[in-house]
Amino acid sequence: xxxxxxxxxxxxxxxxxxxxxxxxxxxxxxxxxxxxxxxxxxxxxxxxxxxxxxxxxxxxxxxxxxxxxxxxxxxxxxxxxxxxxxxxxxxxxxxxxxxxxxxxxxxxxxxxxxxxxxxxxxxxxxxxxxxxxxxxxxxxxxxxxxxxxxxxxxxxxxxxxxxxxxxxxxxxxxxxxxxxxxxxxxxxxxxxxxxxxxxxxxxxxxxxxxxxxxxxxxxxxxxxxxxxxxxxxxxxxxxxxxxxxxxxxxxxxxxxxxx
Length: 259
Ligand code: ADP
Hints:
Layout: E1 11-22, E2 25-36, E3 40-44, H1 51-58, E4 66-71, H2 76-79, E5 83-86, H3 100-106, H4 109-112, H5 120-132, H6 148-162, E6 166-170, H7 178-193, E7 197-201, H8 208-211, E8 214-219, E9 221-227, H9 228-231, H10 234-241, E10 245-247, E11 256-258
Parallel strand pairs: 3-7, 3-8, 5-6, 6-7
Antiparallel strand pairs: 1-2, 1-4, 8-9, 10-11
Helix pairs in contact: 3-6, 5-6
This protein binds adenosine-5'-diphosphate.
The site of adenosine-5'-diphosphate has 10 residues, from helix 1.
């Protein structure tokens, strides 16, 4: 059960038999996944396990060899309006000459249409989101002049204005300072409290039980998926990481560190 004590029965994301290969080599093999609405889910697995590939395949950004992905029963092409994506910070050209506010307003294009100029209302929504991530002061700064944590918060503000039902976030905690990490965790919990489903690629195994109520363990194949307290076990972690996991014996909860 989630820490908020309830899960609705709707399935936010359903993946069936998903196989993705690059140059004939499978990065994901026959993956099945059902994610209930309203959970905050970590996707965990070693480097190269296919975590980013899973997100990209779900969003039709890369071709699938086989398989089907449904958001609330719909293919992505029909569901894109409700699906938000926060890509890896490193995958973006931060030298592109644009302001923080403009990046955040891009989150509204799904609602505005690409060819409509954002008006006052759009600006107000974007500013509100920037305030939520404590970045309003930097709204007019060029994105090339942001720190890593500020870049990450810009992305989160963009996701917030999109007002999606389901969010994918690819390593939002990568290389952020402790203050930004707390801010992101707060935001994730707020999204869940608003009934959103949030799927996060996450590397720090120690914080999984604290931050997430649902977890998927992945290593090309799906190893396990479900409520954190049932799935995030030493046995499953060993199946995911092989011998490369040392558990902290004194820990009160299943807790592990990838070496
Ligand atoms: P993770 O996010 O778990 O680290 P990825 O999904 O990025 O894993 O990658 C899974 C596997 O697919 C890795 O072996 C990686 O090298 C390979 N891969 C990822 N993207 C490409 C690509 N564009 N072309 C070829 N191989 C790729």
